[in-house]
Design goal:
Mean pLDDT: 77
Keywords: Membrane, Transmembrane, Transmembrane helix
Distance between the termini: 50 Å
Structural class: mainly alpha
Strand content: under 5%
Strand order of the largest sheet: 1-2
Number of helices: 29
Length: 692
Amino acid sequence: MSLKWWIILALILYLVPLVLVLILKRRSQKASGSKEPRGSWMNRKAQAGPGNPAFNRFYQRSYVRSAKFPLLGGQLRRIRQRLAIMGPYDEMTLRKETMKITYAVLLISIGLLLALTLLGRSFSVTLLGAIGCLVLNGMLIDVFVHRAENRLLQHFRDFLEDNRHQFQASRMADEAIYEAAQLAGHNMRLHGEQMHSVLTAKDPERSLSAYYEVAPNRYLKAFTGVACMIMEYGDKATAKGSLYLNAIGKFVQDINFDLLRRSRLSYQLNSLTLIALAPILLSFPLERWAEHYFPLMGEFYEGRIGMASKLLLYAIAVAAYVLIRKLAETEESRYVPKPGGIRWEKKLYEYRIVRCVVDRFVPQKHTKAHSDLSRLLKESNSPLLLEWLTLRRLLLGLSVGLLSALMFVSVHGSMIQRVREAPTYPKGGLMIGRVDGAERAEAERRTAFDRKIMDEFRGMRGDVEEALRRRVRDTAGAVLGEAEQNEAAVRIARKLDRMNDEYLKAWELLLAVAAGAAASFVPVGILRFQRRVRGMDMQSEVDQFRMLISILSQFDRMSVQILLEWLERFAVIFKPALQRCLLDFDGGAAAALAELKHEAPFPAFIRLIERLENSLEHLSIQEAFDDLEMEQEYYREQKKETMDRLIENKASWGRDIGFAPVMFMLGAYIIVPFLYVSFMQMKDLIARLGQI
């Protein structure tokens, strides 16, 4: 079967399931109807329906059948665990959402694998594509889960607006939450019903603590806690009206800021992920084009430098993709440890042999290296222990070292194959421009002649040129002249020398070891990158602290410790420091706050802590933070400016990182190979001029 038919067959196999999924999705959208406008809130209850029954049956059957396969079943369990934390799904909805993400991930991965296979047309490229799909699998799952997070946040904003209307009618927080939940979409209705059960429980404090453990984001936690306080102490009239309604307005405003920031970050960075991965796909057609029009460049691409450049390009592209994804992620998805049962590092570390090896590489306690790595894990909020991080570094270094050694072995085998199979063009011929059929046929005939003689002299060392002349004379003496026979003998001798020289050398093993050692620092580098990116998000979280404090400071029985507990529940970046402060608070409030400023030395956060210090003795909470209400407009503008600066900084970083693989591809696949061809042509030209 020709290449054209293979391409057509592959496209059919890929497009048919994609078209079927799109048709089913369109039918589902038609069955569920269009969304009502925002003003008709009384009619939105009908939107929480189950959707197209045929579409749901398709997902349910797919889930049951897919769970029976080992690898696909593990994929389903991972996605299911991520979604189960996000919302109180029922079993049918959880299966449907899991299969939606699974189908999307599989279609994208299969499409990428087919593109690499068709463009590369080699087993090594297919293997590289399979490894790349495994790497992208977890990233794609994160992308689709983040979309679900944003959708839940939008539904919660609509829920709050409906809750405002219901509270104005009933003046009861629990009834307002229940009625608003009945008008919300399916997932938000389940959350609203859980909030109502917390407010009406016999032990609200215990139920609230249980809900804090499963709430998918900080806003749901904070709003449920505020609603519980309203139920316990009653609503309060402030200078701006109802305390409860004022809190809802601030939550809505902050959620709008958050959604806008996420939308702008997604707009700025999502296209850069495609640009970062594009060089992997473009490298294959670019290499084919160069070999077609500049045949001598094939020696560069299949040589040591060419193979090293190719692997380095892939590594840079994947690294750029990972870094851009981390820039585009939201704070909660980046810093909250991912659920998913027992980690593979923990299971592997439990083996005695592995534990003995890893413990030898873990820095000793009370050393600077141990202290620095421990602090790095805490500041990046990584779920890894120091032993698990060391195990990950060792495995990554060992894998890269072995792959590098195998790459050198593969290069030697590829060079031997190229010496045997590559068309042999006349020495000194201009290898620029398209080669016509006659020239290529003559070059392939010359290669077949050389290969036949090389097979007889393979492995022989020393001066075999005279023996080659005799063998060439006996084989083609009637066809070739004496000068051509001598040229053929010299050419074959050089090919034999090149083939005999293709073996794994000591310096190549040293390079493989060096590559493995360098790769072992990659996990640490990623943690440092996360910590640096986290610094950009600190001001945003402090602004959210101000919003929460402006609500809580209006309650009469608020104290410093209770306020710190609320900040700890709402925090993401400052959570570890706040947790340690609460643990030390009973031993001395002033000392605990001073240590908190030392552990989180961010200027805006320190100013908030200094106000809490004043509240310990001199002022009340409301007096210490009374200017938050007076300067609300200023803080709103400051928050907008902070958000713009944050997005611009991340977009600038993203552009630099995203275009790095493209620039490297231009150098590794165009500039350097052209210089190689030019020098080789110059060398042959000088040699020919010297013979004249």
